[in-house]
C-alpha cells in the first residue's frame, strides 16, 4: 500500500475516533442535565471498548516499525501541500506525535517548514527559503506565503503568517498571527508584533514567547509561590515585552535622493551565531499558558493583569551576553548607481523585478575583532523586493527565522517621510 493511502486511512480513523468521543461527551451532558450527579467518563460501555480498541490499534504499533514508517513519509514529502501528511502523522496519537517530532528536523538542518514552531526557528545556512508577501490595502493586512510567487504557486501556496496594521496616536503596530482572521493577543495563534515610534524611523520586534534564557520554565507554567500577586505581573511583563530586535532607519535631513539606510540589531541572536562553529538560539516548542494563568489568578480578585496594554511602556532588549560578543547587527547592502538606467541597482538574482524604495538586502555588519569571515559578511541574510502590484518577495536564511524576517519586511511598508 502506498504511504499516502496508508496515512489517509489513518486520518480517516482519527476522524472516526473524534466522532466517537464527541458522541460520548454529548451523551454524558444529556445524562447529567438537571441532576447533581457524577457521570461516568463514557455513558456507553460499547463506545468505551470501541474507543480503546481503535486507539490501541495504532498506538501500540512496534516503535521500530512506526519509526521506519514516519521516516519514509518524512523523506518522501518534501514540499507543501504534500507535506501536510507529515503533520497528519503527528495528529494520530501521542506516541505518533512524539516520534514525528523526533524525526522532523529544524529548518536549519533540512530546509523545510513543517510545524508552526518552524516559523520561530532559524532558516537553512546555504539555500534561502523563498517566500512572497501579499498586501491588502483595503483591510491593511499582509500575508506571508511559502513559494516563489503567486503566479508559480497559485492555490498551492502555504500560508505561513499574517499581519494587520493598526495606526495609533503615537505609533503604528503590526500584529502578527498564524491565521488571517484573529489577531487577538489572548489567542494561541498570536506570535508577536512590530511597533514603530512616532516618526516611523525606529521599530521594535516584540515576541509573544518567553526568551530561551529566561528564568521562567519553557513550558510556560509558573511555579507556585507564596506571594504570587507580586510575582505574576513581573513575569507577565517579561513575556509581553520580549524585544528580540530593533530596526532603525537613518534620517534624511538634507532630503537627498538615494535609497533608505537601515540597521537591524538582533538582541536575541549573538554575533557568535555567524562565526565558525556558532549556533543560533532555536526554540523547540511554544510557551503557551502564561496569559491563561494570569487571567485565572486575577479573575477571582476582580483585578486585571498588567500586561494587556503596553503601548506606552518601554521595552528593554535582552541583556547581552559578554561571552558571545554582543548581538548580531545587520545593515542594508549599499546599491550602486547605474548610469544608463539612472537609478540605484542591486543584484536580486531575478527575484525582484520592480524598482521600489522598499527593496533591500541585509548583510552582517561585523567588526574586525569579532572574527567573522568575509564570506559571511558578504552573504545576503534577508532580501525583500517588489515584483508586482501589492506583491513582494522575501528570501531569508540562517540565522533569521520566518517570524523575524517577516517583521523586518513589515517595517518597510510603514510610511517614513523623514527618511526619504
TrEMBL record:
Residues 297-326 are annotated as: Disordered. It comes from the Eukaryota. This is Tubby-like F-box protein. SUPFAM superfamilies: F-box domain, Tubby C-terminal domain-like. Gene3D superfamilies: 1.20.1280.50, Tubby Protein, Chain A. Belongs to the TUB family. GO terms for biological process: regulation of DNA-templated transcription. Residues 119-415 form the Tubby C-terminal domain. InterPro entries: F-box-like_dom_sf, F-box_dom, Tubby-like_C, Tubby_C, Tubby_C_CS. Residues 58-101 form the F-box domain.
Amino acid at each position: 500500500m502506498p504511504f499516502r493511502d496508508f496515512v489517509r486511512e489513518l486520518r480517516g480513523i482519527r476522524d472516526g475516533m473524534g466522532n466517537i468521543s464527541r458522541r460520548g461527551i454529548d451523551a454524558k451532558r444529556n445524562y447529567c442535565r438537571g441532576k447533581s450527579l457524577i457521570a461516568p467518563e463514557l455513558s456507553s460501555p460499547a463506545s468505551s471498548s470501541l474507543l480503546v480498541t481503535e486507539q490501541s490499534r495504532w498506538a501500540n504499533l512496534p516503535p521500530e516499525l512506526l519509526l521506519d514508517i514516519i521516516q519514509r513519509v518524512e523523506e518522501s514529502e518534501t514540499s507543501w501541500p504534500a507535506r501536510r501528511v507529515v503533520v497528519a502523522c503527528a495528529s494520530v496519537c501521542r506516541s505518533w506525535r512524539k516520534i514525528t517530532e523526533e524525526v522532523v528536523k529544524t529548518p536549519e538542518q533540512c530546509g523545510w517548514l513543517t510545524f508552526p514552531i518552524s516559523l520561530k526557528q532559524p532558516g537553512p545556512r546555504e539555500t534561502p527559503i523563498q517566500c512572497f508577501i501579499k498586501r491588502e490595502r483595503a483591510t491593511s493586512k499582509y500575508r506571508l506565503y511559502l513559494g516563489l510567487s503567486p503566479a508559480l504557486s497559485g492555490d498551492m501556496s502555504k500560508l505561513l503568517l499574517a499581519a494587520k496594521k493598526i495606526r495609533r496616536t503615537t505609533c503604528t503596530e503590526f500584529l502578527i498571527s498564524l491565521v488571517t482572521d484573529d489577531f487577538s493577543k489572548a489567542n494561541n495563534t498570536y506570535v508577536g508584533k512590530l511597533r514603530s515610534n512616532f516618526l516611523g524611523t525606529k521599530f521594535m520586534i516584540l515576541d509573544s514567547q518567553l526568551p530561551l534564557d529566561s528564568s521562567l520554565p519553557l513550558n510556560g507554567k509558573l511555579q507556585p509561590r507564596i506571594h504570587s500577586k507580586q510575582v505574576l505581573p513581573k513575569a507577565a511583563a517579561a513575556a509581553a515585552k520580549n524585544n528580540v530586535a530593533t530596526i532603525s532607519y537613518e534620517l534624511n535631513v538634507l532630503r537627498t535622493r538615494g535609497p533608505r539606510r537601515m540597521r537591524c540589531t538582533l538582541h536575541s541572536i549573538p554575533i557568535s551565531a555567524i562565526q565558525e562553529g556558532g549556533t543560533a538560539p532555536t526554540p523547540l516548542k511554544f510557551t503557551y499558558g502564561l496569559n491563561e494563568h494570569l487571567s485565572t489568578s486575577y479573575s477571582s480578585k476582580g483585578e486585571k493583569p498588567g500586561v494587556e496594554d503596553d503601548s506606552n511602556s518601554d521595552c528593554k532588549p535582552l541583556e547581552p551576553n559578554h561571552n558571545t560578543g554582543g548581538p548580531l547587527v545587520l545593515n542594508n547592502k549599499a546599491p550602486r548607481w547605474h548610469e544608463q538606467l539612472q537609478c540605484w541597482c542591486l543584484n536580486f538574482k531575478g527575484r525582484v523585478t520592480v524598482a521600489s524604495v522598499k527593496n533591500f538586502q541585509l548583510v552582517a555588519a561585523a567588526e574586525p575583532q569579532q572574527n567573522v569571515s568575509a564570506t559571511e559578511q558578504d552573504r545576503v541574510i534577508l532580501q525583500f523586493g517588489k515584483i508586482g502590484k501589492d506583491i513582494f518577495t522575501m528570501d531569508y536564511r540562517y540565522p533569521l527565522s520566518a517570524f523575524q524576517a517577516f517583521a523586518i519586511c513589515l517595517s518597510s511598508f510603514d510610511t517614513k517621510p523623514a527618511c526619504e
